[in-house]
Amino acid sequence: MTDKMTTDEAWRQVGRHLETLGESLAETFRSAWKRAEDQQQLQEMQSGLEAMVSKVSRAIEEAGASPEAQQARQDAERTAESLRTAGADTWRDARPHVVSALDRVNTELGKLIDRLESAPDDMPDEPFPREPAEE
Questions:
Q1: d(CA 24, CA 49)
Q2: What is the pLDDT of residues 16-53, one digit of tens each?
Q3: Which is it for the CA torsion 9, 15, 21, 27, positive or negative?
């Protein structure tokens, strides 16, 4: 297993634990809310949750400002620019071939239209009659 796969799995596991924690906290909050005598505890729990969210937000912001995050952002920007350039180059190279193919299709459609317009009036309405259904 590579370091990257190990790191990805570790973050997925952290996400699962945070989800479980959130579910537990939500259930505790709902239970406490139902009991009026626990309003003080509910206020304390809310204050604690707000402090936790603030600390997590600050940690995420700090991580985003880290040299590693900045390098990843720069790498992503370079990759996006390379993709844009490659796409433009590919279209520039393919365009004459696409135009040529469309010209051939247009020519063949013109021939088909000419044949259909010059067909005798007694020609069946369906140019390709259906085969009888098997019974």
A1: 13
A2: 777 777 777 777 766 666 665 566 766 777 788 788 88
A3: negative
Neighbours of 125 (CB within 10 A): 5
Contacts of 42 (CB under 8 A, 6+ apart): 29, 32, 33
CA distance 73 to 80: 11
Tokens of 96: 């004459």
For the chain, give the longest Cα–Cα distance.
93
Q: What is the C-alpha separation between 24 and 31, in angstroms, rounded? A: 11
Query: The whole model's pTM is what?
Result: 0.37
Rounded to an integer, the average pLDDT of 112-132 is 71
